[in-house]
Amino acid sequence: MEQQEPPQDLTSADTDPAAVPPVLDPSRWEDFEGFRETFLLNFSDPRDNAALRALGRVLYHLILEAAHVMPGPPEGWVRAHLRAAVADLRFLQGFLAFVGEERQGADLPAGEEELCRSVARKARSLGKIADVIEGEMG
Description:
By secondary structure, this protein is an all-alpha fold.
């Protein structure tokens, strides 16, 4: 029986800096289809982060190729896309509310408590945007 390499020690510090979310250009949104940045930020090892980004790209391109054999949404593509966008807005609303409200009063570096208050207000604004889109869809 061939001897296998022992598993890599996941607790040892890497020499690579942690992966950070990219600055996104909204006109290039399709370059970032796949997993949400709020999910990917949990994979701080740059190799793992890059691997998940690559997997997301592959999955996105595969589903684009298979779109012609998939059943269409019952209410049409525009409404389906808008409902998906609203769902993402609601996700971000909740995520920002968590960051903004749950982190207030914690032992934060200077300036971050005000940032949390600001983000909590922005979360409410995202909710209003989602409400408007939902209202327009009926």
